[in-house]
Design brief:
Blueprint (H helix, E strand, L loop, with lengths): L1 E5 L5 E4 L9 H8 L5 E5 L24 E2 L2
Antiparallel strand pairs: 1-2, 1-3, 3-4
Protein backbone atom coordinates (compact mmCIF):
# COMPACT_ATOMS: atom_id res chain seq x y z
CA UNK A 1 0.00 0.00 0.00
CA UNK A 2 1.04 3.61 -0.61
CA UNK A 3 -0.32 7.03 0.26
CA UNK A 4 -0.79 9.63 -2.48
CA UNK A 5 -1.35 13.32 -1.89
CA UNK A 6 -0.92 16.57 -3.79
CA UNK A 7 1.15 19.48 -2.55
CA UNK A 8 -0.28 23.00 -2.76
CA UNK A 9 1.89 23.63 -5.86
CA UNK A 10 0.22 20.69 -7.64
CA UNK A 11 3.06 18.15 -7.32
CA UNK A 12 1.85 14.61 -6.65
CA UNK A 13 3.66 12.95 -3.73
CA UNK A 14 3.80 9.28 -2.80
CA UNK A 15 4.56 7.91 0.66
CA UNK A 16 5.82 4.34 0.81
CA UNK A 17 5.90 2.81 4.28
CA UNK A 18 9.05 1.19 5.63
CA UNK A 19 9.17 -2.58 5.19
CA UNK A 20 8.70 -3.06 8.93
CA UNK A 21 5.64 -0.75 9.19
CA UNK A 22 3.01 -2.88 10.92
CA UNK A 23 0.37 -0.31 11.82
CA UNK A 24 -2.62 0.84 9.81
CA UNK A 25 -1.92 3.01 6.75
CA UNK A 26 -4.36 5.58 8.11
CA UNK A 27 -2.04 6.17 11.06
CA UNK A 28 0.91 6.72 8.72
CA UNK A 29 -1.13 9.11 6.57
CA UNK A 30 -2.21 11.17 9.57
CA UNK A 31 1.39 11.31 10.73
CA UNK A 32 3.17 12.04 7.43
CA UNK A 33 0.76 13.84 5.08
CA UNK A 34 1.09 17.60 5.64
CA UNK A 35 -1.68 19.24 7.65
CA UNK A 36 -4.77 20.03 5.63
CA UNK A 37 -3.83 18.12 2.47
CA UNK A 38 -6.18 15.42 1.19
CA UNK A 39 -4.83 11.94 0.51
CA UNK A 40 -5.67 8.57 -0.99
CA UNK A 41 -4.45 5.15 0.18
CA UNK A 42 -3.76 2.96 -2.86
CA UNK A 43 -2.40 -0.42 -3.88
CA UNK A 44 1.22 -0.39 -5.03
CA UNK A 45 0.10 -1.02 -8.63
CA UNK A 46 -1.80 2.31 -8.67
CA UNK A 47 1.49 4.23 -8.75
CA UNK A 48 3.25 4.08 -12.14
CA UNK A 49 6.41 1.98 -11.95
CA UNK A 50 8.03 3.81 -14.87
CA UNK A 51 9.67 6.87 -13.32
CA UNK A 52 10.55 8.48 -16.67
CA UNK A 53 7.64 10.92 -16.53
CA UNK A 54 7.08 10.93 -12.76
CA UNK A 55 6.88 14.74 -12.61
CA UNK A 56 4.06 14.70 -15.17
CA UNK A 57 1.78 12.45 -13.13
CA UNK A 58 -1.49 14.12 -12.15
CA UNK A 59 -4.33 13.23 -9.83
CA UNK A 60 -7.61 15.06 -9.36
CA UNK A 61 -8.50 16.53 -5.98
CA UNK A 62 -11.79 14.60 -6.32
CA UNK A 63 -9.82 11.32 -6.20
CA UNK A 64 -8.15 12.13 -2.87
CA UNK A 65 -10.97 10.82 -0.71
CA UNK A 66 -9.43 8.85 2.16
CA UNK A 67 -8.73 11.68 4.55
CA UNK A 68 -6.86 14.89 5.35
CA UNK A 69 -3.41 15.19 6.90
CA UNK A 70 -3.39 16.09 10.58
Amino acid sequence: MKIVYKESNGNVCVISPAANWSQDMEILAQKDVPTGLKYLIVEDSFVPSDRTFRNAWEISDDELTDGVGA
